[in-house]
TrEMBL record:
<protein>
    <submittedName>
        <fullName>Geranylgeranyl reductase</fullName>
    </submittedName>
</protein>
<dbReference type="InterPro" id="IPR050407">
    <property type="entry name" value="Geranylgeranyl_reductase"/>
</dbReference>
<dbReference type="InterPro" id="IPR011777">
    <property type="entry name" value="Geranylgeranyl_Rdtase_fam"/>
</dbReference>
<dbReference type="InterPro" id="IPR036188">
    <property type="entry name" value="FAD/NAD-bd_sf"/>
</dbReference>
<dbReference type="GO" id="GO:0071949">
    <property type="term" value="F:FAD binding"/>
</dbReference>
<feature type="domain" description="FAD-binding">
    <location>
        <begin position="5"/>
        <end position="305"/>
    </location>
</feature>
<dbReference type="InterPro" id="IPR002938">
    <property type="entry name" value="FAD-bd"/>
</dbReference>
<dbReference type="GO" id="GO:0016628">
    <property type="term" value="F:oxidoreductase activity, acting on the CH-CH group of donors, NAD or NADP as acceptor"/>
</dbReference>
<dbReference type="Pfam" id="PF01494">
    <property type="entry name" value="FAD_binding_3"/>
</dbReference>
Length: 387
């Protein structure tokens, strides 16, 4: 491999690195992935909205269809959904590989290859460590699609602990569960997860993903949930763990995701819904925008990559910003106030509104509507928790 063989090097062979590569219309693209296979290790619950699936190019790997959600708080619960299919559950290993197979028609892949940017005069170059060998490439553009902990973003000084928070996760795949396979189960209960939530997602008739995102030791927290939560105990009475996974999730809003000849995409750019942790829908949209901007840059239509920031912000920047605002309120709410909100929601006519108009890709707008519709008593409690 010669140093000028590629116009674009993408660091990270996850779905968003691949989708970015797929949308580069001109130039030679190399995707480098540190693992030996695309799609592993798993770090995802695999729940994707209809629109998200479309943005990802309708990949293979659907294992279940979802019509709604049971949302549980400490003592209350609410059921959202009707006959309409709203989301799909994917086997990510199958999905990621299918996307990579599609993309391999346009891009080259190098596996077991660790990519790092290095400053080189005015621009950046890439150092790849592949099976003990060091390869240096000088592409015109580099994409940091290197996931939640993005070393690329850190080296560029675009990502830090002030503009994004990293949460941890633990998840089990379990079989022989006793579950309503059409609905996901979401537990908004700070006894288990203080900073996010816990879930049971059916992958089919008796197969589920049980997971939790929070700060700190998520394994112990998930075990506590499985052993103590009455709903979980009922669903998982005869269930066995057949897969364990852990991972991390970035929540934040980056003002800048471009520096010199490098841009960030997907989790590396914090293109993640702050209220649910879903990163595939915004990530895929951002990857497409990145691909289009790079194409224009390569054919000389534009001389800088900064327009990427403007374009993704126009498309979904506000949804991330508003999600972060609501998340700040959520973090301050006591568990009893949260419980009361779910209790009120269960009795309100908002459920019909959510069933008819709710959009799981516009969670911030929906959460805002719910908060605004709460009565004076609970509004006062929220205020008390916030102060
Ligand atoms: C527990 C959990 C549950 C989730 N559930 C959902 C869900 O249900 N729905 C949803 O939409 N989203 C979900 N997400 C988020 C979703 O998984 C991510 O948003 C999505 O995977 C982002 O894709 P990506 O390509 O940006 O990053 P990744 O999928 O993380 O891919 C990045 C790739 O880069 C590689 N890499 C990193 N550094 C280097 C390097 N230096 N050199 C070479 N390769 C490198 C990694 O090995 C990896 O393959 C969840 C996340 C977590 C943690």
């Amino acid at each position: 491999m010669n140093s000028n063989d590629y116009d674009v090097v993408i660091i990270g062979g996850g779905p968003i690195g691949c989708i970015t590569g797929e949308n580069i219309k001109n130039g030679k693209v190399l995707i480098v992935e540190e693992h030996q296979s695309i799609g592993v290790p798993l770090q995802c619950a695999g729940l994707i909205s209809k629109n998200g699936v479309k943005e990802l190019g309708n990949p293979k790997g659907v294992v279940n269809r979802i019509r709604g959600a049971y949302i549980y708080s400490k003592n209350n619960s609410v059921k959202i959904g009707n006959e309409e299919i709203r989301a799909y559950v994917f086997e990510r290993k199958v999905m990621d590989k299918d996307i990579a197979i599609r993309v391999s028609k346009k891009c080259d892949f190098l596996l077991k290859a660790y990519g790092e940017i290095e400053k080189d005069k005015n621009d950046y170059k890439v150092k790849i460590t592949h099976l003990g060998e060091e390869i240096y490439l000088n592409p015109k553009v580099i994409v940091g699609a290197d996931g939640s902990k993005s070393i690329t973003g850190k080296k560029l000084g675009l990502v830090n602990n002030k503009n994004r928070e990293i949460l941890s996760s633990c998840q089990f795949e379990m079989v022989n569960a006793n579950v309503d396979e059409d609905f996901v189960y979401v537990f908004l209960d700070k006894r288990y997860s203080e900073r996010f939530f816990t879930w049971i997602i059916p992958m089919g008739k008796d197969r589920v993903r049980v997971g939790l995102i929070d700060k700190g030791n998520c394994y112990n927290k998930l075990m506590k949930f499985i052993n103590e939560n009455e709903i979980a105990k009922e669903i998982l009475r005869n269930a066995t763990i057949i897969e364990f996974s852990s991972g991390s999730l970035p929540i934040g809003y980056l003002e800048r995701t471009v520096k010199d000849n490098v841009l960030l995409a997907g989790d590396a750019a914090c293109h993640v819904k702050p209220l649910s942790g879903g990163g595939l829908y915004f990530g895929a949209m951002g990857g497409k925008i990145a691909g289009e901007v790079i194409s224009k840059y390569l054919n000389g239509e534009i001389s800088r990559l900064e327009i990427y920031d403007k374009k993704w912000k126009e498309k979904f920047g506000n949804e991330i910003k508003n999600g972060i605002r609501i998340r700040k309120i959520f973090l301050k709410l006591g568990n009893d106030t949260l419980d009361e909100i779910i209790g009120k929601l269960a009795k309100s006519d908002l459920i019909e509104y959510i069933n008819n108009h709710g959009d799981m890709d516009k969670q911030a707008s929906l959460a805002m509507k719910i908060l605004k519709s709460l009565d004076f008593g609970i509004g006062f409690r929220i205020l008390r928790d916030l102060l």
